[in-house]
Amino acid sequence: MGCGGTTLFYPLLITLSVALITYNIIISSNTPLKQGFPSSSSSSSSIIDPVIELPRGGSRIRGNNERKRRLFHTAVTASDSVYNTWQCRVMYYWFKKIRASAGPGSEMGGFTRILHNGKPDQYMDEIPTFVAQPLPPGTDQGYVVLNRPWAFVQWLQQADIKEDYILMSEPDHLIVKPIPNLAKDGYGAAFPFFYIEPKKYEKVLRKYYPEERGPVTDIDPIGNSPVIVGKEALKKIAPTWMNVSLAMKKDPEADKAFGWVLEMYAYAVSSALHGVSNILHKDFMIQPPWDTEVGDKYIIHYTYGCDYDMKGKLTYGKVGEWRFDKRSYDSTPPPRNLTMPPPGVSQSVVTLVKMVNEATANIPNWGE
Description:
Elements: H1 9-28, E1 47-48, E2 52-54, E3 72-78, H2 82-102, E4 108-115, E5 129-131, H3 147-158, E6 165-169, E7 173-175, E8 188-190, H4 202-205, E9 227-230, H5 231-250, H6 252-258, H7 262-273, E10 278-281, E11 285-286, E12 299-301, E13 306-308, E14 322-324, H8 347-362
Parallel strand pairs: 3-4, 3-6, 4-5, 8-10, 11-12
Antiparallel strand pairs: 1-2, 2-10, 6-9, 7-12, 8-9, 13-14
Helix pairs in contact: 1-5, 2-8, 3-5, 5-7
């Protein structure tokens, strides 16, 4: 399904300006936001178990059989680059297969690729797609990820989304088993990243999350993906996320501190500004080669290169005799039937390559 068309610069500029005014109102107000979500400063206790961390209080998540079926829509932002496109095709193959395997009780709803280059591409019939307009030229300052929050703003405003929850995912995510709706009681559900450290960067973050809002620990150590969050909550968060991202990119101190994870910090701040706390699921996904077993995880995130010698020893930082790195395929898709890793390589990497090979073997016109 394709949606799109030409959006003129001036209406876009007006929309951006309105959203910026909204953001300024949010951060200048001393009154905590009340939107039906738990206050991030309402509890000081932490509840931790091996799988789920409730960062600021809350009840333990129960089994799927103890709750109603709550559908979520999976959304992935992407450009029309070869690099993004082949990853989206592989991801959507596995989304369809895993959703079908889950049966009628699955909470996995629809899927949308949000294509933020402003025009349809040749894969509109293969992958359900919404065409969003990019930011005005020069706005992203070479940091193309800034288009992600703006693309979500457009999609949430214009698309007919049936589900009440959204899973924000990425092209380099492979779903390995059916994902339940992990959000609960107004909390979002997110993966905690070790390199998102609000306390370490409190001085910078206070520009965007003032002290009167609460402790800096209200800002969860998350990005925008993977995150499951209520649709109505995300409609409020997304414009703020867009403007905090733009403001941080224009701020030399924030830009230097956060670098390539800047928009991740911007989402975490924006979620906190709107009073949306997140249940931190350490088992939401794995990231090979550092995570060696798939186990009970839901997603493989292949953001890191996997380099090994022929004895199966990891040679990270040095190109291995055997390697799989998505960046090797920035201008052409990976070929079908990639060579499998040598004996001794971790199960997570073996599973990753098997999944890529299965997808490319079954996706029509691969590499054309």
